[in-house]
Amino acid sequence: MMFWKEVKRVRKGEYGGEERVKGADGQLLVDVIKVRERWAEYFKNLLNEEDDREAEIVAVANEWRMPMLDENDRDIKKEEVRLAPRATKTGKAPGIDCCHVECLSKACLESHLEPLGILVLERQVLVSQKGDLDAKPPLRKKMKTEVKESSDASLWLNMAELYRSLDMWDVVCGIVQEKLGNIKPETCRALEAEAINNPTQAFVQYRTALRKEEWEEEPSLTEKRIWEDWYLNCAGMLGQWSEMEKFLEERFLKDHDGHVEVSRVWNVARPTSVILPAMIQSKLMNILDGSDNDGNLFEFIKASMEDTHHRLLMENTFPLQMAVLAVYQEKMPRAEVYLNSTMSHTLHAISQYSILTPKPLKATLRNAQLLTELDDFLKASKQAISDADPFKVKKSIETWKNRNVNTGDNPVLIQCLASYRDLYLHHLDNQIELIPEEFNQVMRDIKVATHRAVVESSLQNFNYHLADRHLRKLKVISNDPYSLAQFYFLMTENHMLRAKNNPFKSLQYLVEAWARFMGKVSTMPVLNEAAVDAQYLRLESLLCYSICEAIDEMGYEWAPDSQYMRILADKFPTPQSKETWYTELLKCSFNSLIKAVDLTENQMLDDVEPNESSHKKVYRTLAKYCDDCLEKWENRINSFEYSKYLVIATLKGMMVGDTDAQYHFPRLINLLEENPLLIDTFKSYAEKVPTWMFLLWLNHILIYIDKAPGPALQPLIENLANEYPQAVVYPFGVSVQQYNLTTKTGKLALPICNRVKSVLNRNPLFQEFISSTSLVVAPYIECKDALRSLVEVECGKEEIEAKLKVIEETLFKVNVRSTRRTSFERGEAYIKLDRMRKLALEAVNKSFGENFKKLNSMSVKDIKEQLKVLYSLFKPTQEDQQNLPRQLKSYSPWLASFQASKYPDILELPGQYSGLSKPLPEYHVKISSFDDNLLLMKSMRVPVRITVRGDDERDYKFLVKWGEDLRTDQRMEQAFALMNAIYSSSPLCSNLTSRPSLDTYQVIPLSVQVGLLQWVEATMPLKDFISDSYKANEMKAYDSARETFGRVRPWEPSEKTRAKDIVKIYGEVVNMIPWDILRRGFVKLASDSTGFFSLRSAFAVSYATLCISHWILGIGDRHCSNSLINLKTGCVVGIDFGHHFESATQVLPFPELMPFRLSPQIVNVFQPVGASGMLKQIMIAALGSLRNSRQLLISFLEAFVKEPTDDWINFVRMLQGSTDDGQVELYSNERIRLLKAKLNGINPAHITSWALKQNRSMKRQPRVLSSLLEVIAGSNKNDLRSQLDADQLTSCQQVDILLSLACDPNILGRTWIGWDSFL
Question: What is the pTM of this model?
Answer without folding.
Answer: 0.85
